[in-house]
Amino acid sequence: MTHTILDPTGRGAQPAGSAAGPADPQDRPTPELAPRPASLAGARVGLLDNTKHNALLFLTVVGELLVEEHGAASVGIVETKKNFSIPVDEEIVSRYRESCDVVVTGVGDCGSCSAAAVADGINFERAGLPAAVVLTDAFDITGRTMAGVQGAPDYEWIRTEHPMAVLTEEQVRERARLLLPEILSTLTDPDREVRA
């Protein structure tokens, strides 16, 4: 009896006639970061919840703070992934591209969800959407491996102390407040107006 072993990095050999993309990350184009707005004033923020415990609360608070304190026009789309361990597909990316100017996603606090969150961020960037990805610090190696597989070994995300899932509601709100400056700086380029 033959057993198939799945390669979670997506680098395994493809069956003959497969339509899958290149297995070698060096064959993939290196994604450039999407252009950042100078600020979030008037921006439509998209939130992508990966279903992990406390992720939606964290993202919701971040969205509220970006609207209330940084002039974002709205939280234009909030979606929950069907499977936290699988990167978003082109259909979902297209919906965000039509409805949002920037995206915040996470919270990666396990191996597979962290890898998928990094892939999500890179997919949004390739589509022209600035993305802030939040992972807990226990999964840096997982995130870095996926970034390499995606052809973006230097891709950066926002790190927060592990774990997030066990925090109380008040602690999640505090964590959102603590990470807000880094999320803001990831999504914007305040020098853009000066250089323009």
TrEMBL record:
Spans annotated as Disordered: 1-37
Record-given protein name: UGSC family (Seleno)protein
PROSITE patterns: HEAT_REPEAT (PS50077)
Positions in coiled-coil regions: none
Biased composition (Low complexity): 12-24
Domain UGSC-like, first and last residues per copy: 5-188
